[in-house]
Amino acid sequence: MDVLQEKGLTPLRVILSFSLVSTTIHYAHNAIRVADYPQLPGVPTMVAGIVVAFAWVLFTVFGWLGYRAYREGRYPRALAFLLVYSLAGMITLGHFLTGVPQIPAFYFATIFTDAAAGLALWVFVTWAWSALNRVTSRDQVSTQY
């Protein structure tokens, strides 16, 4: 078993599970109570709610595809999908670009748990990419005669 499967699969499952729970709660609240969040000028609240729900589904599909590719050992593809999925968490910080949401503390906290999950996924992808591209002394070719 390679190092990415041996050492990486469990942390990836934990990060993805945490992210799935956090983003599900946050995106659902955001889609249902869209009027409680700062609005983009000119975007009707109904349209914003639909976009939020669609975005969650799309991001989650990328996460699932990334996990599946990782499990199958297709690491470059998996890491690309996982980076896209990480945006589901990181993008929630965008709420603060248009104002501070006036929402209950629990849902306010999910903005930060989403971001933490996205950041954890970035750290994981960085680790996996470096492990994937690590050159060992055995892999090096001697330049001496």
Low-confidence stretches: none
Q: Mind summarizing the main beta sheet?
A: none
Could you give the order of the helices and strands? HHHH
Number of strands: 0
Instruction: Please state the overall shape, judged from the principal axes of the Cα atoms.
Output: elongated
Number of helices: 4
- Average pLDDT, to the nearest integer? 90
Based on helices, strands and strand pairing, what is the structural class? mainly alpha
Key terms:
145 residues; mainly alpha; elongated; 4 helices; single chain
Architecture overview:
This protein has helices at 3-32, 45-71, 75-90, 105-132. The protein has 145 residues and is mostly helical. The chain contains 4 helices and no strands.
Topology:
Elements: H1 3-32, H2 45-71, H3 75-90, H4 105-132
Helix pairs in contact: 1-2, 1-4, 2-3, 3-4
Question: Brief overview, please?
Answer:
The chain has four helices and no strands. The protein is an all-alpha fold and 145 residues long.
